[in-house]
Amino acid sequence: MDVNRENYDSSSINREEEDFDIKRGPWTIDEDLLLVNYIATHGEGRWSSLARSAGLKRTGKSCRLRWLNYLRPDVRRGNITLEEQLTILQLHSQWGNRWSKIAQHLPGRTDNEIKNYWRTRVQKHAKQLGCEVNSKLFRDTMKYLWMPRLMERIRSTTSCNTSTSTTITNHVNDNLVNITPRQGSHVSSSRSTNSSSAQVDPSYTSENSSTAVSFDEHQLSPVSDMQEESAVPLQLENNVNINTETSTAYVGYPDCLTSPTGYSYFNQNGLEFEQNNMWLGNEDFWENLWNVENMLFSK
DNA sequence: AAAACTTTCAACCGCGTTCAC
DNA sequence: GGTGAACGCGGTTGAAAGTTT
After folding, report:
1. What pTM does this model have?
2. Of A211, A197, A209, A204, nearest to A297 (Cα)?
3. Which of A6, A221, A273, A274 has a CA-to-CA distance to A266 between 20 and 30 Å?
4. In order along chain A (299 residues), what is the average pLDDT of each group of 10 residues?
5. Domains along chain A?
């Protein structure tokens, strides 16, 4: 990246950054080895002096970033799992763009990675729905559709592994609405084709991830926590009764999706819904919603 | 096959905060 | 308490990889 030094605010220039011999851009394997070997021998210490001592022509900042985001042995790489996606959505609804704080609840994931996930996946979907990522419409879509859907997907993909899914399942059971197949929906094709494609990172186990633990540790009830934060009345809780026999046809779609104002959007026939609601009267929105959901949960 | 377009993510920047003197 | 250096965070960029036309 070309750096225009004339744009620098001279008051904020660090001494190390005044060195025009500083190297920037992608790290080489040799640089990585230098940094890893130095830290293995001496520990992290002060980054600016570490960079010099290790023989790296990099800023301390750059070394720190490279170590924390890439070289650290406990950095977890690969796709964001369903559990992690759910955690990110939950915590972002609570804290906003506090990436570092969110990352603390996703061991092995970096704030940078979570930030990138949010920008490349979630913000993109908001755009495709034609709404702002911070809009009430999009937040409600996440709360009332995607997060229950994610929880159900997690439950279904971990049902063969009870030890892994115990905690999550408990929360799903505590928070999801009735789940029965909904008939007559115009969106069935796109959903049904994708319903079996949920993936779980093979590296994810109850041992190496504390995502599920974090629910307990921090009393994060996926829906109820948001309810506390949100001013809108939420009707999801206490309608607890997951029907595992009937949840397979449309894996996890609530037959009765409750709106922020407390009205049902669908009945069993998928026909009855609240009038004059912001979610309604926009067929494009619904069409986009299902398309977006496919993309959100695929990968 | 290649150009055009899109997506991903490593790395950078600026700024506020913390630390050390 | 003041000051400068270093750290940490969130926003942004752009090269590379992937996909579409």
Report:
1. 0.62
2. A197
3. A221
4. 32 47 87 91 86 88 91 86 89 87 90 89 79 80 84 79 44 33 30 32 35 32 33 31 29 33 35 42 59 54
5. 5-71 (1.10.10.60), 82-297 (no CATH)
